[in-house]
Amino acid sequence: MKREQWSSNLGFLLAAAGSAVGLGNLWKFPYIAGSNGGAIFLVVYLILLALLGVPLLLSEMAVGRSTHKNAIDACKAIHPKWGFVGGAGVLGALIILSYYSVIGGWVLKYFFLYLFGAPDGDAAAYFDQFSARTAEPILWHIGFGLICVLIVSFGVSKGIERVSKLFLPMLVVALVILVIYAMTLPGSMQGVKFLFFPDRTHVTSIGDLGTIIVRAMGQVFFSMSIGMGTLITYGSYLDKNANLQKNAIVIPIFDLLIALLAGLAILPCVFSVGMEPTAGSGLLFQALPHVFETMHFGRAFAVLFFALVFFAAVTSAISLLESIVAFLIDRLHWKRQTAALLSGATFLLLGFGSSLSFGLWSDRTFLGLRFFDWMVFLSDNVLMPIGGFFLCILVGYLWGVPNLLREVSSGGRYHLHATRTLRFVLRVLAPLMIAVIFVVSLAAMF
Ligand code: PHE
Fold first, then answer.
1. Mean pLDDT of the chain
2. Taking 70 as the threshold, does the pLDDT of residue 159 lie above it?
3. 79: part of which helix (H) or strand (E)?
4. Which residue in 30, 54, 427, 432 has the most C-beta neighbors within 10 A?
5. How far is the CA of 439 from the centre of ligand 1 (A)?
6. Which ligand 1 atom sits closest to the C-alpha of 319?
7. 308 close to ligand 1 (CB < 6 Angstrom)
């Protein structure tokens, strides 16, 4: 059977940007930055994005394209004993999907909420009540998950490319409008300051700084879709002529832009209505209703906005699902539909635990973390760094930088920049940084 391919590099770029841009930017970035010192977090994030994000993104795409295989078999093709690197990714993808779909369900709920009305009473309290319910959020989660299963069943280029082409430009426009409105709220400049001007009082000890660095690294991996085998998988459908080096610059810049716009839309509202930026995972759903209230046609805009967030979430979720499904198809020769359905059932079930963490199970903790927090910790702070670390070793030493460069330059067709730096980062700096941050995060945990 001929392997599927993107229709063009633009198709790939859209799909990869679609994978990167998602709840990580719109939902997670504002609340993680909010809880970890604002501007100081941003500075650390930028450094880690350049040092870890770009080289790892490049490596994943190159490994995928040179082997034309799913994440596990691609790593195996480079070294027979190293399939586990892709394996950690596929497992991580399943874990992320399980809770990603819960948040995706919240987005779906808010879309319909605004379609038929608006949250009654205080928006923050409304969200707390909704997310604490038992059955309703689980039903939305199932709805979101099934939509992803359906899209992935249709196959890569047909399903994934089409969705991304449409909504990404619309998302940028909608965010810009939201940012402008958010700026008009009284007191909103405090939010801008919080995001762009470092304030030493947010970091009072080395421990604080350590936490910020750990969180920022997790966020770089999460937001860029690195370490989960998704970019290996997407890269495997890529044509030999695509310019990987350009992709590795364009995708992070675009991803960062969306995260900054989301932060600039949400944090000013938070300050304007006197919420705390550290309020946590409900920030997106609690702060923005205040902008919608003040806007002309605010309700219609809210419907459009949540539709766009929904698409952003779907295009990321399907990239995670594709990473699992591609493995099941290649290795076990399952039909695409069967593979999508069975992996769907698995992540949906696992997601129940995360959904209940906000209500019925909110008191059930293990080492102080709820089920949901464990899933986030396992994916962002354990599996992604492990995947990233071993990917550096696999590419930097076992495959070797010359092979990487040959692939990236499409056999000499493209002129490459900063190859020495790339070599140093992949072989020394990145694995060292990831290892140190990983050990610090585990030590802080136990
Ligand atoms: N990058 C996606 C987001 O920001 C999430 C994701 C993580 C997707 C890992 C694929 C792999 O929402």
1. 90
2. no
3. none
4. 30
5. 23
6. 10
7. no
Nearest CA, atom 9, ligand 1: 225
Per-residue pLDDT tens for 417-441?
889 999 999 999 999 999 998 898 8
DSSP per-residue string spanning 356-378: HTTTTTTT--BTTB-HHHHHHII
Q: Is the CB of 220 under 6 A from ligand 1?
A: no
Considering only residues 381 and 42, tell me which one the structure prediction assigns the higher pLDDT.
42
Q: Whose alpha carbon is nearest atom 6 of ligand 1?
A: 225
Distance (Å) from CA 22 to ligand 1 centroid = 6
Tell me how far apart the alpha carbons of residues 280 and 32 are, in angstroms, rounded to a whole number.
7
The Cβ of residue 134 has, within 10 Å, a number of other Cβ atoms equal to 13
Sorted by sequence, the CB contacts under 8 Å of residue 40 that are 6+ apart come out as: 198, 199, 202, 203, 212
How far, in Å, CA of 320 to CA of 434, rounded? 22
3 pLDDT band, cuts 50/70/90, is low
Cα distance between residue 192 and residue 175, in whole Å: 15
Report which ligand 1 atom has the smallest distance to the Cα of 224.
1
Q: Whose Cα sits closest to atom 7 in ligand 1?
A: 225
β-bridge mates for residue 369, sequence order:
366
Closest CA to 229 of 429, 24, 19: 19
Which pLDDT score, from 0 to 100, does residue 241 have?
84
Nearest to 232 by CA among 351, 339, 416, 88: 88
Q: What is the reported pTM?
A: 0.91
Contact 354, 99 (CB under 8 A): yes
Q: Give CA–CA dist 409/422, Å, rounded.
A: 14
Q: What is the mean pLDDT of residues 236-246?
A: 87
Ligand 1 pocket residue status of 319, Cβ below 6 Å: yes
**315 ligand 1 Cβ < 6 A:** no
Using a CB cutoff of 8 Å and minimum separation of 24, what contacts does 113-120 make?
Answer: 114/292, 114/299, 114/302, 114/303, 114/306, 115/303, 118/289, 118/292, 118/293, 118/299, 118/302, 119/289
Name the residue with tokens 């003040």.
294
Q: What are the C-alpha distances in Å from 213 to residues 6, 196, 207, 358?
A: 36, 17, 10, 26
Quick check: 242 and 162 in contact, CB under 8 A?
no
Fill in the amino acid letter for 406: R
Q: What is the pLDDT of residue 157?
A: 62
